[in-house]
Structure formats: structure tokens, C-alpha cells
Amino acid sequence: MNQYETVFILTPVLSEDQMKEAVAKFKNLLIENRAEIVNEEQWGLKKLAYQIQKKTSGFYNLVEFKAEPSVIKTLETAYRRDERVIRHMIVKLDKYAAAYAEKRRAKLAKKEEA
Fold this sequence. Notes:
By secondary structure, the chain is an alpha+beta fold. The protein contains three helices and four strands. Helix content is 42%, strand content 42%. β2 (36-52) and β3 form a beta hairpin.
């Protein structure tokens, strides 16, 4: 199993419930395909660097997971079919990136405890 990280931006016209439902849909897709979700972060509504589909902001979400390479094609297809997703990116993490992600998670957990 390889370790991956995906960031996707949802359209800003969604309500809080609709946004959470869309994120849950993609998480469930990963779980159904026997992927192990390592970390999930919702970065909230952020301003985009440039307009996408005449929108200047979007809901950013990050999901780190371990999965077989065949799952990536399924996830990519789901992103493309869902009109709520305005941008997405899936990156395979090498051992250095995975170590960095682990340190980052530990730092965030420590920050939340304080």
C-alpha cells in the first residue's frame, strides 16, 4: 500500500452541511475501496489565488490515506463527476514526504492540546 495525500476545493456556495456531506462521500469512497485514512483536515473557506469557474473562494479539504494504486483512478473519477469539486490534486508521498506529514500532524496535535 502506498501513502497518498489529496487536497480538494469545494464550491463556496455550499452550506456547512452540504460541505460536510461532500467530504463524507469521498471518505466513504476511500473506505469502501479498502483505503486506510491516516489524517483528515478541513481548512475552511479560503480565498483562491485566481478565479476558478468565476469563484474567488472555496472550502479546502485535505485527506491523507494509504491505498492500493488502483483506488486513485476511482477517486479521480469521483472528483471529476461531482460538480461541487472545483479543483483537486492527489499526490503520492515518498518516505520523506510521509515523515514530514507525520511531524506536521504531531505538531498540530501538540498545538491543539495547548
